[in-house]
């Protein structure tokens, strides 16, 4: 029995840079932003895989590619079946099984629509033979499942009448109403207060426990990823540099970039303090990537080989994979 819900091999997304109307016409050489550059990724059924990295690393692009919202190169499979983007029936079935929670509820909700229209829209598009009474019933159920109780009180409101947390719950209700098997959650709690954030995370975790929903959870927050994830993948400039069980955040990480991220996390253990690793320099441009390992200009342990050879993502132990020539480097602890 196949336990993989999504698999990608050599996934690439390049965005062509616009240089101006005249230059675009006469220029023979074009520059590209390599947002995603040769990523291999597997997500298991019933798993929460967190994708972590700084802004511009390609996290959101991967999420959009999975849902066919961005043109891509490479091979992708959903539930062990290759994407068939020319087959309308396959696309309709895929849309029911895979959904996305967008980061900003102030932008993702149409201000002209009432809440009942926003939440029920996926249901109307995917299950077109439903009667109006059943649509209304399932809309109320979705709102209440998302924590908006009683659901009837929210049906005929507009987004501007709700708080930020309530808006995000509406966005979640619009996703959950079709009971998807896989959800891309793009920074779903980054704009919310801590108390509301906990409620949203618990709601998503309940969905996983009750219905076996799989998640690609995109976030900047390493501590949150550590808390809720089964596995964590670290991205840097369009590449996954390390992936493994969530426990790698507790000190088992091997890549120098991951070590730098972990070193600045809050540590309540005063007897085992971590030495903070402050990276020097700026992140290179995704248009003009460095040769060899793209992290080497900022890497505190870079060597001559790192400037010439690009490391491959190789498994080292316990389902942990690292793209580094010298993964034996470990964090130093200050007693």
Instruction: Give the termini distance in whole angstroms.
Output: 48 Å
The percent range for helix content is 25-40%
Read across the widest sheet, the strand sequence of neighbours is 6-7-8-3-9-10-13-12
In percent terms, what proportion of residues is strand? 15-25%
Main beta sheet = 8 strands, mixed
Please write the string of helix (H) and strand (E) elements. EHEEHEEHEHHHHEHEHEEHEHEEE
Number of helices: 11
- Poorly predicted sequence stretches spanning 5 or more consecutive residues: 331-335
Q: Could you state the oligomeric state of the chains shown?
A: single chain
Rg: 22 Å
Rough outline:
globular
In short:
This protein has 335 residues and is α/β, with parallel strands linked by helices. Helices cover 31% and strands 23% of the residues.
Can you put this structure into words, describing what you see?
This protein has 335 residues and is of the alpha/beta class. It has eleven helices and 14 strands. The strands form three sheets. An eight-stranded mixed beta sheet has the order 6-7-8-3-9-10-13-12, sandwiched between helices. Strands 2-1-4-5 form a four-stranded antiparallel beta sheet, with helices on one face. α5 runs parallel beside α7 and α6 crosses α7. The longest helix has 18 residues. The relative contact order is 0.13.
Write the layout of secondary structure elements.
Blueprint: E1 4-16, H1 21-26, E2 32-44, E3 48-52, H2 59-66, E4 73-78, E5 81-82, H3 88-97, E6 98-101, H4 105-108, H5 115-126, H6 132-145, H7 164-176, E7 182-186, H8 194-211, E8 214-219, H9 222-228, E9 231-236, E10 239-245, H10 256-263, E11 273-274, H11 304-308, E12 314-317, E13 320-322, E14 333-334
Parallel strand pairs: 3-8, 3-9, 6-7, 7-8
Antiparallel strand pairs: 1-2, 1-4, 4-5, 9-10, 10-13, 11-14, 12-13
């Amino acid at each position: 029995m196949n336990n993989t819900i999504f698999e990608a091999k050599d996934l690439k997304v390049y965005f062509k840079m616009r240089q101006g109307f005249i230059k675009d016409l006469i220029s023979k050489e074009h520059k590209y932003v390599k947002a995603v550059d040769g990523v291999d990724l597997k997500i298991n059924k019933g798993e929460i895989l967190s994708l972590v990295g700084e802004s511009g690393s390609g996290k959101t692009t991967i999420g959009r590619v999975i849902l066919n919202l961005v043109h891509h190169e490479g091979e992708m499979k959903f539930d062990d079946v290759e994407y068939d983007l020319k087959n309308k029936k396959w696309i309709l079935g895929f849309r029911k099984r895979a959904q996305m929670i967008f980061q900003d509820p102030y932008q993702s909700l149409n201000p002209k629509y009432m809440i009942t229209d926003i939440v029920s829209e996926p249901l109307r598009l995917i299950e077109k033979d439903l009667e109006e009474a059943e649509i209304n019933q399932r809309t109320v159920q979705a709102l209440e499942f998302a924590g908006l109780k009683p659901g009837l009180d929210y049906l005929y409101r507009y987004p501007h009448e709700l708080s930020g947390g309530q808006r995000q719950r509406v966005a979640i209700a619009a996703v959950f109403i079709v009971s998807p098997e896989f959800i891309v959650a793009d920074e779903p709690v980054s704009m919310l207060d801590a108390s509301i954030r906990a409620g949203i995370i618990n709601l998503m975790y309940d969905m996983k426990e009750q219905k076996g929903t799989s998640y690609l959870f995109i976030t900047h927050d390493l501590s949150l990823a550590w808390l809720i994830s089964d596995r964590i993948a670290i991205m840097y400039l369009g590449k996954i540099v390390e992936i493994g069980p969530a426990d790698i955040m507790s000190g088992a990480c091997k890549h120098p970039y991951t070590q730098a991220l972990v070193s600045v996390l809050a540590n309540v253990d005063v007897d085992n303090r971590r030495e903070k690793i402050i990276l020097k320099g700026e992140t290179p441009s995704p248009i003009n990537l460095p040769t060899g390992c793209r992290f080497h200009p900022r890497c505190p342990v870079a060597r001559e080989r790192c400037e010439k050879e690009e490391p491959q993502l190789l498994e080292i132990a316990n389902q942990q994979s690292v793209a580094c020539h010298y993964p034996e480097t470990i964090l130093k602890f200050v007693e």
